[in-house]
Amino acid sequence: MKLPVIKHLSQFIEDNDEDFVVETIETLENLTEVPSLKDEELDVIGELISNMYGALEVNKMVKEGTPKKEALNTFMQRVMGSIDN
């Protein structure tokens, strides 16, 4: 996951609507079922999906009243904590 990408997507959600991101995730998840995709391509799609889910999570925290910068930092700390375990 990349914080700049999540931040950018969070801004997109704020400016538009989270439904765009949810539908994009569904499309990308469906695309992973194409049997001819190479591992590298699946990795890229997976990274995009992860960043989009991250942006949705940040957006949820912001809706609950957490300042955006704090929501981004909290989310990334959770991700890093789960990687360390």
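Above is the first protein from milestone M3; the second protein from the same milestone is given next.
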Amino acid sequence: MADIGIIGAGTWGSALGLLLSDKGHRVTMWSAVEQEVQALRESRRHPNLPDVFLPESMIFTASLEEAMAQKELLVLAVPSIYVRTTAHAMAGWCKKDQLIVNVAKGIEESTLMTLSQVMEEELPQAKAAVLSGPSHAEEVARGLPTTCVAGAHDPDTASRVQELFMGPFFRVYTSRDVLGIEIGGALKNVIALGAGIADGLGYGDNTKAALITRGIHEIAGLGMKMGGNFETFGGLSGIGDLIVTCASIHSRNRRAGILIGKGYSMEEAMEEVHMVVEGVHSAKAAKLLAEKYQVSMPIVEQVNLVLFRGKDPAEGVKELMMRDRTSEGL
């Protein structure tokens, strides 16, 4: 069994900590907020996972040094907007060849870097990996069957992540296409906002299917232009994650989109959801990447206009429907 540090005590970090603890690993979970650490120690429950008990064997700490010391694996589980600052703070205690798997999904807006690229820049001495796929924390914490993909440039690194996480209810595949995995994971949140907006407008299953299908077309078009593999976008971190995020009641991106479709502003929707809505932070980056690589991404473009320019969502749908006639491949 391994000593594992979870850097980030949010819903996803807590669910993965429970998964790893149930496998017999020794888990230490870190939060920057001392009050959160104390509440988790006392209640053994996360507020967003109220029916799930976090075992007494799990250690909670506000000390990064304690969370990182003598750990075979570190799981970076903070929201995407905090990955750089957290990784920077970790640098002083990160040993050479430390295995770190990032489980957040997003693109850094200021640099257009993927999160593993950010992690590699801040922690060049570490062995970086990613874990992604259709995996809502609420279901993983309940032990419902889930499949993900572990990505790393080094096959042995991906295989070790697979070995540490895989169990009867959590199946893990491996891949060397780290870029493709991360582009799929980040951009599906943007498309899910669009799917939620369509739900909020009262549109039906036909609309949802169209958004998912054309959405993965946009994601794959950009991802392959950037160097990702086509097969990745047809896999768990591509179409798999996109389907679950566009359709699930657990999806915070879809929930925010529903509110926007009903007339809420972007700021009002984010406040109502009470959690980080990753798609809002990735939308601008996705648009900038589309421009940089000269890839047509009309859904991403319309989502940006609705989020940041106050465009009427119904008008955005109309413009998508009335684009110039073309073949399906374009």
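Note on the second protein: Residues 184 and 219 are 6 Å apart (CA to CA).
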